[in-house]
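Please supply some protein, with fold tokens.
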Amino acid sequence: MTVYLSILLRLIIWFLLTSDLSLVNIVIGVAIAILLPHDPPRLPVLKDWIRVFWEIIIAVPVAYFEALQIMILPHKKEAFLRRRVRPNRTPGLIFLDIFLITFTPKTIVLSYQEDGWYKIHSVERDEQS
């Protein structure tokens, strides 16, 4: 099941990069998604994939809200955070985690460290303003 989700994720990224839904582009995208190497599937991952897709749906209104906050209120305080990667994450789920963190306007992932941490840059509202 995770192989299909991986192929679907690769196709979505392909279509977002090319912005072309012609038949030739679909065939090329499917071929690339299938031919790229896959990791061996892990069993309890389906629940994590469903949770991440739900978090993506929730992230869209949160991103709009944060964008409005940044426009209306000054966010001059910067912070550098380290957040631990959830256990048993596949590379696809790690990519989606990084996407979720970076999708919102107040945070961006600076690096993924192989020892299981994300380094995150965040802007925050200065409470004294």
Summary: Strands lie at 77-84, 107-113, 117-124. The mean pLDDT is 85. The helical segments are 2-18, 23-35, 45-72, 91-103. The two ends are 50 Å apart (CA to CA).
